[in-house]
Amino acid sequence: MQTIPFYPSILLSNPEPVEEVVTLTDRLIEINTAINDFVWVKIGLILLIGSGILLTIITKFFQITHLPHWVKKTMGGVFKKDAHNKNEEGSVSQFQAMCTALAATIGTGNIAGVSAAIVLGGPGAVFWMWVAAFFGMMTNFSENVLGIYYRLKNKDGDWSGGAMYYLRDGLAKIPGYEFIGKTLAFLFAVFTVLASFGIGNMGQVNKITLNINSAFFSNMESPVILGSIPLIPLIIGIVLMILAALIILGGLKRIANVAEKVVPFMAGAYVLGALVLIVLHFDMIIPAFLSIFRFAFGVEAVGGAATGILIKTVITQGCKRGVFSNEAGLGSSVMVHCNSNVKEPVKQGLWGIFEVFADTMVVCTITALVVLTSGFIDLNTGLALEGVSDATLVAQAFGNSFGAFGEGFVAISLLLFAFTTILGWSHYGCKAVEFLFGKFGIMAAKIYRVFFVLMILSGALMTSSLAWDISDTFNGLMMIPNLIGVISLSPVLVRITRNYIDRKIKGKNVEPVLSNNPVIQAEMAQAVAEGKE
After folding, report:
1. Number of other CB atoms surrounding residue 180 within 10 Å
2. CA-to-CA separations, 313 to 37, 96, 465, in angstroms, rounded
3. How many CB atoms are closer than 10 A to CB 205?
4. What confidence score (pLDDT) does residue 4 get?
5. What pLDDT is stored for residue 182 in this prediction?
6. I need a surface site. Which of 117, 293, 332, 366 has the fewest CB within 10 A?
């Protein structure tokens, strides 16, 4: 006979409290959330928008007052020979530099990011996305101008530039700011390398894998090998790793050659497909635009049935997702713009304006219209319908009209958008590594490329969002030293911009201001004098 142990009732009624176990992962999530909230919400968006407003004012609203000029020199010059000239050793054409920068900026943020902004912040978030982009045009312009002005050539004869260079050779040269400038340059480079592995690599690969799985393999369970490794994500990761290796290990010129061909195609195909979908719901276009402006300052509760979306959430989601999309203010795309064969800093700055315009004002706006005309957002309340997921909202919108083809189209678009982002960020990380390792930088950059490619497989197999969240924080941390540098060097920016306007727009005969380095200044001035711009 089994003996049943006797427990005093006092022990049953007052059991010993069980201590909650806090894992290392929990602690990391807590710390990262606190830092991310501080960087992006408490100071980041204020710093970003504030910087954009300041730079717009000191350049006298350049993006508006010189609209015909920058349109003519960018969109109007796409088919001109000088925009595609690749003759200069160690550089890429102006158009290639812009395409490579767009390759890194046009990513999942243009599809999933926009739908997330609308679901979380309502239609009004699109308005604030536009506001962030309007001022972001001049932030991106300013980064490019300073990047070209302070860039240098490395031992291989390739251009090297970016926020770390104008912090070290610009801010650090101001009396009393040597330590601050060099420290910020170092931190920016470190944050860039760390962010490149997350938001520029594993996070993008993870999004590709999830979307391909959802679009093409949702009806089957992935076989498992070696005990716990899912076979389908593994195969996707290996294919992406091989494709990336063939391009990335060939250096910037190979990346630029691919970007020049893929970016216009992928952006054009997505925009065309989205426009067809919008036209099919043409009766919803005007209500969609009206909802953007009506809910720009928050969503009021309807009959007490909804809590509503506060103005803070609307602004935060719109601005944050806009910055995620075009990266203006992060100091990232300037690292590839600096490899342009351009001689005039302002001329590459014009491509920076166009980059933000194309990324946010065109691609993101079209995605927003797809979402708002889809019927999944109640345009009377501004709230998403019950059960709507921001991660699959765009795919659902296409699927509703085009069936499985529509969902597949979005999956392929995300694949191209995310894959080209990986290519662009590999170059950002390379330039940051090159800066950090000084005279051993070129060798270190080659090792970095190999490691970067290998990490793609980790992204395909990644199940936790922690790596993505942490890289998002590092992405935001890049912004702080970059904007400190841009604002501190704004007098230099104004001098270069005024010099360009005087010479190229007003026709004055004055000496060009082209480089901080006397030797490069002389070479570039000679080239400009000979008409080689």
Report:
1. 17
2. 13, 37, 22
3. 27
4. 44
5. 94
6. 293
What is the phi-psi region of residue 78: left when phi exceeds 0, alpha when psi lies from -120 to 50, beta otherwise? Answer: alpha
How crowded is the C-beta side of 259, counted as CA atoms within 13 Å? 34
For residue 22, pLDDT over 50 is answered with yes
Place of tokens 């841009």: 486
**Residues sharing a CB contact under 8 Å with residue 428, sequence separation 6 or more, in sequence order:** 104, 162, 192, 196, 200, 332, 335, 336
Indicate the Cα dihedral angle 148, 108, 424, 199, nearest 10°: 100
pLDDT digits (tens, 9 = 90+) for 84-109: 455 555 566 777 776 776 666 666 66
- The residue type found at 256 is A
Q: Where are the beta strands (DSSP E) in 435-498?
A: none
Q: How many whole angstroms separate alpha carbon 518 and alpha carbon 355?
A: 30
Contact 427, 340 (CB under 8 A): no
Predicted TM-score of the model (pTM):
0.84
| Residue keyed to tokens 């005024």 | 498
Look at residues 457, 458, 447 and name the one whose alpha carbon lies nearest to residue 249: 447
Structure-token pair, residue 193: 């390398």
Distance CA 136, CA 63 (A): 10
- CB contact set of 233 (below 8 Å; sequence gap of 6+): 209, 213, 222, 460, 461
Q: What is the pLDDT at residue 441?
A: 84
309 φ/ψ angles, rounded to the nearest 5 degrees = -115, 120
**Which tokens in the block code for residue 468?**
């993505």
Residue 83, pLDDT > 90, answer no
Q: Tokens 């602690």 belong to which residue?
A: 27
| All domains of the chain in start order, with CATH | 85-529 (1.20.1740)
